[in-house]
Write a structure and sequence with these properties.
It is a single chain. The chain has 13 helices and 14 strands. It is of the alpha/beta class. It has two domains: 5-185, Rossmann fold, CATH 3.40.50.970; 197-320, Rossmann fold. The strands form three sheets. It has a seven-stranded mixed beta sheet, sandwiched between helices.
Amino acid sequence: MNSPVSRTYAEAAVAALTHEMEADPNVVVLGEDVGRGGIFGQYKGLLQRFGAQRVIDTPISEAAILGAGVGMALAGLRPVVEMRVVDFALCGMDELVNQAAKNRFMFGGQGRVPMVVRMPTGIWDASAAQHSQSLEAWFAHLPGLVVVAPATPQDNYSLLRAALACGDPVVYLEHKTLWGASGEVDVTRTATLGRAHVLRPGGHLTLVSWSRQLLACAEACSALAADGIEVELIDLATLWPWDRDTVLQSCARTGRLLVVHEAVQAAGFGAEIAATAAETVGCKVRRLGAPRIPVGYAPVLEAQSRITAPDIVAAARAALA
């Protein structure tokens, strides 16, 4: 029987890919630098294990990489497409938006695109505006795409395997600064896309977040608990489809919802959650996201785009007022 072992976020992804590639010869990897293990070590050792026909280094052309992935998927393979960072994926958006996302619908289900597109997301320390974006709301808005945002090594193992088994195109958003984060990974644990995790029970306020922002949310919950305020913290994990039942049941119990995300607040995915809760449950809702500014390079400017635990505590207290 396998026992949980400590792995980093990056190692968990390698373990998930190794499992799937051993089980199915149709799983292939393509992208820039995947042969040398990826810029975050998320493909380390795969070239040596599976060879250059299945771990394919590509030219620097995001449109070509995504287009090749779509073609591979339609031909029966299960490609994992590496975009290095979500910001670079914008150069290949036509292939994702107009081809991968639409194919199953436009051709009456005759073709499917079982492709996982890995797009490391979020603020990358001292990397400035073109390397620090959180664009999950763009992809959640597009019919035909599944959107996943793993927050822990366990989720990066289980959700990556679930994404590969999905059968539809998955935008897989791993945070750029989580790769070295460690945690126990149980390889027998499976995940279901569209199912959230209740990380902390509470009766005063429902707090919903995802990805790296959960770390600040957990810190805020501990600070609030010291004052007798019990917050129910929910990790959404999958943004589309999102777990409406878990979130709305919690909102019905607490009567209050706060959604927190690293992305810009204006038109962020938190608005969808807040609106749905207000319409369905009638609870009090608040959102907390970044200001609508580019992420700065200088630390003092970068800090303006970060949502900190004290920010979350203040927003939670306002929601409870």
